Amino acid sequence: MKLKVDQLSLRFGESEVLRRMSAEISETRVLAVVGPSGGGKSTLLRVLSGLLRPDEGQVLWSGGPMSFREKDLLAYRRRVGTVFQAFNLFPHLSALANITLPLVKVHGCSPEEARQRAETHLNRFQLLAHAGKKPGALSGGQRQRVAIARAMAIQPELLFFDEPTSALDPEMTYEVLEAIREVREEDRDLVLVTHEIGFAREVADELWFLHDGKILETGPPQQVIDQPRTEEAQRFFERIL
Ligand code: ADP
Ligand code: MG
């Protein structure tokens, strides 16, 4: 993907959450976004995935500028997959139905095709034995893998992950990172907000350090993590590494 974020601004009431944020990448498969909590990472991801409209500025993907008109956003959201921190499955539906329902209702699949796609993806993430269980009967790691399987089953052009492991203990974190590695093997672009810096270093081609509504550093992960130029990034990486 190519991506350019140009002077993005977004306010929630009085508080300015994205502050004329700009950055640019080209030929990147996996973009990782890191930085301190409250800096605007989730907000940026919601703009990029078509869930929030910025007050000012532009987003340009490989194909051109993103349209933030309601009608265009609805179409755009069908082409991207999103996996959030936690609690994004329907609690009253089985793992299988969590995957088939959006395929049928939003993506126009026949029930038969939806079932086939769901089973393929459940199998791929070692979840077939859990197909009939509701989220409450699954572990945190299994739930996140169902969420990833659901996002993959729609065959999105782009996948967004927002701290998919931050609610998990280390063992389950490992399972979910393995699932993301598996996703990365495919020819699919990912944008990943994460606090797993070692993982970001391993899987990302490009890393953005976001602080207080601005992108302060961009570059290859090794470079930004090992030789941060700004004091803010130095402090952040010192504290967490
Ligand atoms: P991060 O993901 O980096 O932790 P967020 O994008 O979630 O940061 O939040 C950035 C800032 O915006 C925070 O100060 C947060 O409290 C605020 N914020 C986020 N969402 C909302 C909202 N829906 N309404 C009001 N303030 C919000
Ligand atoms: Mg966040």
Task: Describe the 3D structure.
This is Amino acid ABC transporter ATP-binding protein. InterPro entries: AAA+_ATPase, ABC_ATPase_HisP-typ, ABC_transporter-like_ATP-bd, ABC_transporter-like_CS, MetN_ABC_transporter-like, P-loop_NTPase. Residues 3-237 form the ABC transporter domain. It comes from Puniceicoccus vermicola. By secondary structure, this protein is α/β, with parallel strands linked by helices. Helix content is 40%, strand content 25%. The chain is built from nine helices and ten strands. The two termini are 29 Å apart. Residues 12, 17, 37-43 line the site of adenosine-5'-diphosphate.
Mean of the pLDDT scores?
Answer: 95
Question: How many E strands?
Answer: 10
Principal-axes geometry comes out as globular
What structural class should be given to the helix and strand makeup?
A: alpha/beta
Number of helices: 9
Helix proportion range = 25-40%
Query: How far is the N terminus from the C terminus?
Result: 29 Å
String of helices and strands: EEEHEEHEHHHEHEHEEHH
Percent strand = 15-25%
Mind describing the biggest β-sheet? 6 strands, mixed
Low-confidence stretches are: none
Distinct small molecules: adenosine-5'-diphosphate, magnesium ion
Order of strands, widest sheet: 6-7-8-3-9-10
Radius of gyration: 18 Å
